[in-house]
Inverse folding.
């Protein structure tokens, strides 16, 4: 049977063109909608990342501030520790009252003190440098100097003591020097001067005494226990300054 198509070819082509154009338009709309959705999603994600970045910056700023405060506290702590160590090092290992009691305890009969002076200063040989001797001696000297350089200056201070007094004779002065040399607190007790000293007395002629001057050093390793201090103070004689 013969099929006859009464629809014009132009109409069919136009219909197909419209359908194709409609498909393209739908596809374009779908693509545009996808692009719009992707753009919106990217923007939302970008805003979220910006917010996270801002929050991270705030946290980093707070962390940096905390680190700075911690560093300041550490610096202050180091200064305080250094000050405390310096204070501890400057504390006298032997109280002056105990030292005075030890000096008066060793006074022979008929002897009294008139003046006492304590001076702290650096050792005279601290800055000296030995250029002679063998290489071994030079190496020992350099080692000692490097060890001294690592110690704080407060620990290197020496306590020198100037002692002045009056005795009946040079025998008492010699006895006093001998007793001080045997003391656990002093070293290098040396006689500086001993000369005649006259005192006017109404009941008799002028009394002839000996005015003496001594120098000594406090031992660096002198450390007394509470019992030693108690014993020294209990034995303190009744001798008074002249």
């Amino acid at each position: 049977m013969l099929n006859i198509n009464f629809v014009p070819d132009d109409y069919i082509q136009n219909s197909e063109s419209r359908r194709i154009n409609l498909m393209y338009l739908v596809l374009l709309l779908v693509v545009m909608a996808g692009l719009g959705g992707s753009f919106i999603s990217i923007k939302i994600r970008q805003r979220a990342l910006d917010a996270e970045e801002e929050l991270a910056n705030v946290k980093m700023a707070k962390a940096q501030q905390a680190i700075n405060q911690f560093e300041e506290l550490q610096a202050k702590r180091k200064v305080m520790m250094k000050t405390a160590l310096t204070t501890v090092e400057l504390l006298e290992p032997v109280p002056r009252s105990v030292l005075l009691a030890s000096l008066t305890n060793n006074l022979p009969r008929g002897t009294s003190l008139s003046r006492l002076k304590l001076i702290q200063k650096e050792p005279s040989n601290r800055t000296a440098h030995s250029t002679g001797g063998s290489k071994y001696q030079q190496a020992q000297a350099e080692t000692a100097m490097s060890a001294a350089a690592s110690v704080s200056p407060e620990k290197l201070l020496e306590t020198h003591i100037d002692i002045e007094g009056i005795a009946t004779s040079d025998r008492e002065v010699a006895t006093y020097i001998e007793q001080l040399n045997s003391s656990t607190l002093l070293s290098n007790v040396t006689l500086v001067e001993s000369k005649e000293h006259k005192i006017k007395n109404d009941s008799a002629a002028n009394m002839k005494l000996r005015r003496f001057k001594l120098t000594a050093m406090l031992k660096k390793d002198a450390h007394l226990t509470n019992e030693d201090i108690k014993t020294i103070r209990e034995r303190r004689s009744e001798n008074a300054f002249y």
Confidence is low (pLDDT under 50) at residues 127-132, 237-242.
